[in-house]
Amino acid sequence: MHQDSKRWYERTYDWIESRVQVADFVRDSAAHPVPSKTASWWYVFGSASFVLLILQIVTGILLATIYVPSAGEAWNSLQVLNHQLPLGWFLRAMHGWGSNFMVAVVLVHMIQVFLFGAYKFPRELTWLLGVCLLLMTLGMAFSGQILRFDQDAYWGLGIGASITSRIPFIGNEAVHLMLGGPIIAGATLSRFFALHVFVLPATMLAFAGLHVWLVLKLGINEWPTPGRLVRRETYLKEYHELTHRDGIPFVPQAVWKDAMFAAAIIFAVAFCAAVFGPFGPTGTPDPTITQTAPRPDFFFLWIYSALAFLPPSVETPLIFIAPVIGIGVLVALPFVAGVGEKSWYRRPVGVLTLIVIAVGLATLTHLGTYAPWSPHMNAWTADEIPDRFVHAATPLERQGALIFKMKQCHNCHALGGLGGQRGPALDRVAVRLTEDQIIRQVIQGGGNMPAYGAALSPPEVTALVAFLDTLHPPNQRPATDASRSIAETDKPAPKEPVENTKP
Amino acid sequence: MNSDFDPQHSQSAEPASAPAAATSSGAHTQNRRNFLFKLSIAINAAIGLLIATPVIRFLLGPLRPKGAYDSWIALGKVTDYQPGTTILAMFRNPVTNPWDGETGNVACYVRRQSDGSFTIFAVNCAHLGCPVRWFPQSQLFLCPCHGGAYYADGSRAAGPPERGLFTYASRINGDTLMIQAGQLPNLANQARLKTPGGCPGRSSANNTDIHFVKEIAPCIKTPNAGTNEPTIG
To answer: N or C, which terminus of chain B has less Cβ within 10 Å?
Structure first.
């Protein structure tokens, strides 16, 4: 073809291509044959994760044009983004929701890879890179939450420092390295900024690139068929035959589902961003404001829950040993179970393990959303005692209800569904405990309840117990101590044995 | 712009003399080049090590000798604190940067007993460091995170914490209340029985001095946990 017959852009393309020479590689990669059954909606999560990573990088760069990584100014710069710059709030929301979607899609991708046995020979390294990418995704989510630099971020760092301080022997030094100084302050934000903006994204891009390269080199995992076992000696040959006998070119026959799903995910992120808006920031990161109840972001709620339930004696060992075991299991998986059956129909242990872990994490996350172990710090002034508990009460009982509020009992004990859930709900406490038992419990505490003996005067105890003793259903009498009624009757006990009184 | 530029062609033309290296003088050159290649790697490794040393020292910058971050800080006049009260006080951390903003501030609870002695509590829960809140009505510190609860004297009342609230060492200079602070209180820098008096309540014996516990001895259990301060009328 004569050069003059080409348009200017074709000539430009030729000029560049003759130098970089990637066209053949791109063409071969795009058209490489994949097993036809892998052109499935189950195979779209990896590409969607990568698309979300790119979305996070783009929105992150845009946010970085405004954000000030300074402890004194970060919170204000987020306010400017939220309220002053046109659509600044939308970009923050895209980045925040993009983060949530990315963690979710990465997890779904991992579950799919696990169920389809895709980590087996020869894709062990692909799986290992994937484990690293999962950890880095979680690292991005955590460091991103810190860059929001509000109260949750500040106290989240406090919790991180607290956990770090439990490292044996070098705990305090590790805390100082983590915080960049003796306290959570400017240096802390700066180092998490460096981590979130330079270190982790660069590493993730490199790892994700290698991850995709391995998928290209080794081929996409074929659809698992029960009974078709992976053998190191024969697998590569079998896979090669499969792709050439029953293969389709990746572009365009398989890729369109990836592209469709990527579009749907990006739209979902934008939709959530537009409808639900950005995350925070909550209050200013002022450590002297103790009127706060810090909560981690959604994907760390399960850790928050687990830390509430661990018995103190095993807490520190578990905090450090459990992650090592967890990551160790993920790393060891392709080497321990690198060959054999791929189909989920023939891997009951794997499927059951996955279900148990998923149900466990979901339950802990659900508990974390309402944190029944935390006192409701404002319940004593914010939540009411429902009318039915006091409308027929005597003055003494009403005084007791006031004590119940004034002494913050409501922060831990619910009445009529209002109040804290740290302790048992007291709607029917009079049925469970006798008057004496209530007095003992209030004064001495126990069973994870503080003793109130020092904080209550005797008249206050009398009033409070009088109120608590009214808390029983109308058709059920309050619990009584049988011996008490005998003691309260005027008849003195017979002084002599009964048989002796007989004539 | 010439689109018939063919780098493959120019590449193939280039190494025409390469196969000629089979001669004895060529072998010598090759050995020399191999040696120089290894030498260049060694030199780069040495330079890398040389540069890594200051980089590592820089990264370890926040590490200071034990106690180097701590100093004595004035927390106001003694008369600012009424006997029988616990109030939230604030001070500026001794080590800060100008851009720390309000994160350079630190809060603590100052408890002044009826006899005039002081106990200064950190706001950080001994479980995982969340800010505990003081409720004077029920004489309790409550933690919003996992439900740790402490009595007025800082001893553990309920919940996951394994110990009482962290305390700062305190003394009185003339009419000024001084505390020793400077780093985020946590189990690593507070758990070593370093607190004034070691046991809750014992610190009040002599507040102008700091007691370092020499031996690990169990704290005497007070029969009535909580505070003896009157709260009614």
So the answer is: C
Chain B: closest CA distance from residue A14 (Å): 6
Minimal Cα–Cα distance from A380 to chain B, Å? Answer: 11
Q: What is the CATH number of domain A30-370?
A: 1.20.810.10
Q: From CA A96, how far away is CA A99, in angstroms rounded? A: 5
Mean pLDDT of A165-190: 94
Query: Is A95 a residue whose pLDDT tops 80?
Result: yes
List of residues 6+ apart from A113 with CB closer than 8 A = A46, A119, A127, A130, A221
Partner B contacted by A246 (CB < 8 A): no
CA distances from A92 to A51, A141, A147, A191 (A): 18, 14, 12, 21
Is A379-482 the same fold as A30-370?
A: no
Please state the pTM of the whole predicted model: 0.87
Structural domain B71-205, CATH architecture: 3-layer Sandwich (2.102)
- Give CA–CA dist A325/A185, Å, rounded: 33
pLDDT in tens, B165-184: 999 999 999 999 999 999 99
Q: What is the DSSP string of A161-209?
A: HHHHTTSTTTHHHHHHHHHTSSSSSHHHHHHHHHIIIIIHHHHHHHHHH
The complex's ipTM works out to 0.88
Domain parsing of chain B, residue ranges: 24-63, 71-205
- A188 φ/ψ angles, rounded to the nearest 5 degrees: -65, -50
Domain coordinates of chain A in residue numbers? 30-370, 379-482
CB contact under 8 A, A176 and B104: no
For residue B229, give the chain A residue with the closest CA: A454
Q: What is the CATH architecture assignment of A379-482?
A: Orthogonal Bundle (1.10)
Q: Chain B contacts of A154, Cβ < 8 Å? A: 103
Total number of residues shown for chain A: 503
Beta carbons within 8 Å of A89's beta carbon, 6+ residues apart = A81, A82, A83, A277, A278
Task: Spell out which residues of chain A touch residue B1, defining contact as CB-CB under 8 Å.
Answer: 11-12, 15
The candidate with the shortest Cα–Cα distance to A66, out of A146, A150, A147, is: A147
Contact A412 B69 (CB under 8 A): no
Closest Cα in chain B, distance from residue A149 (Å)? 10
d(CA A463, CA A444): 17
pLDDT digits (tens, 9 = 90+) for B95-112: 999 999 999 999 999 999
- Going by pLDDT thresholds of 50, 70 and 90, the confidence category of residue A3 is low
Please tell me the predicted confidence (pLDDT) of residue B206: 40
